[in-house]
Amino acid sequence: MSKLEEMLKNYEIPKVCRVEQEFDRTVVEDPEQKLRMLWEQKQILIRPGERIAITGGSRGIACYQLIMKTLVELVKNSGGIPFIVPAMGSHGGGTAEGQQRMLANLGITEESTGAPIVSSMEVVEVARTELGLPVYIDKNAWEADGIILLNRIKTHTSIREEYQSGLLKMMAIGLAKHKGAAMTHSLGTPNLGPNMVRVGKAALEQLKVKAGVAVTENGYEQLADIFVLQKEEILTREPLILKQAVRMLPRIYVDDIDCLIVCEQGKNISGTGMDPAVIGRPINRRPNDGPHVETLGVLRLTPQSDGNASGCGMADFISQGLRRAINEEYTCVNSLTGMHPEIAAIPVTLETEKLVFQGCIKASGQIDGSRLKLAIIRNTNSLEEVYLSRPAFESVKEKGRVRKVSDFMDIPFDDAGNLQLYL
């Protein structure tokens, strides 16, 4: 037994119960049919022979493959020639190969969608903002005859303007590739929101945008709605769609948590791997929008992240398994581009996932184990099912939104100390 294991062995992990949390259940029953209907209603004009770039982001949005495949078919039905452009700023290590691989990890390939993936980090300067900063756009998208912007509209981890994650951001950061994303972030984190809006608006004026296709998700990561916008509608409609998305945000219904365990973080889950508003770890020097969390442990990195563990620096402890999955170069490139080097910092690493629990318990300062408020979540997007210790469950204020669906039980670990929940 190591000195560390000996130090932590007496920190007992409390029993937990499985709890179902209730969120907004708005859902699109037939997204393909709705997308086709809206496309026809908006009379999106694509001429025969036109090469059309469709943006492919790095988030695992609901029905992603189906929506992308349908857009490809709609372009082909009009006689256009569609291709997919990775639009994810500095993700994938800031390389063309890495970004194409990220799309493949999300199921977006030529075989699954019917359109080739044209991945390059080459950009062209298309405009200047009123501050004199250059606006960059993917060269292949710029040279196409038209662009279809596809993205999910949601809150952003650092931006609080009327435009956050959505179509404007897809131009200011996604299509801007590594060079443009770095420029958009160059004024520092306090100015990121306003600068993103300036860059996005300048890009929109110059780009041959055929349509914007926006989606929202409910609290269960299901497709809540889908929108097809003409170019001139994007600036007015996007803020309204964002307000709808905000009303459906999931959360943990415990306001004060001694130990929070996140089973997985990932770039397909959040730009920062974990949503700071869910885990109570604000960035950008902003007030905390989430619960008070005394200690935070993270166990795993999603395969879709391709080694990019940006965001792990928000944790107090991580497992050795997560540590081994980190590509430090990819993580550093992404975090520096976003002007958040602190979230790339590698936290205290403990050999097993069980030790991460025990490290969090010791560091919480809660001497009386019978009062420890422990919460376990799969990730910050999947909050419909959580595990809570008895004190955490009893502290829930919105009782009508939670339902206890199991007795209190010991947390299961295998012989190697790996958590056996959410498998």
Overview of the structural elements:
The protein is of the alpha/beta class. 31% of the residues lie in helices and 21% in strands. The protein is built from 15 helices and 15 strands. The strands form 3 sheets. It has an 8-stranded mixed sheet. β7 (209-217) and β8 (223-229) form a beta hairpin. The radius of gyration is 22 Å and the shape is globular. The protein starts with a helix and ends in a 19-residue tail after the last strand.
Defining traits:
15 helices; 8-stranded mixed β-sheet; 21% strand; alpha/beta; 5-stranded mixed β-sheet; 423 residues; globular
Number of helices: 15
**Main beta sheet: strand number and arrangement?**
8 strands, mixed
- Series of H and E elements: HEHEHEHHEEHEHHHEEHEHEEHHEHEEHE
What class would the helix/strand composition place it in? alpha/beta
Question: What are the SSEs and their pairings?
Answer:
Blueprint: H1 3-8, E1 16-21, H2 31-42, E2 51-56, H3 64-77, E3 81-86, H4 96-105, H5 110-113, E4 123-128, E5 134-138, H6 139-143, E6 146-152, H7 167-174, H8 177-184, H9 192-206, E7 209-217, E8 223-229, H10 234-247, E9 256-265, H11 276-279, E10 292-301, E11 317-319, H12 320-325, H13 328-337, E12 348-350, H14 353-364, E13 374-377, E14 385-389, H15 390-394, E15 402-404
Parallel strand pairs: 2-3, 2-6, 6-7, 9-10, 9-13, 10-11, 11-12
Antiparallel strand pairs: 1-14, 1-15, 4-5, 7-8, 13-14
Helix pairs in contact: 2-3, 7-9
Concise summary:
By secondary structure, the protein is of the alpha/beta class.
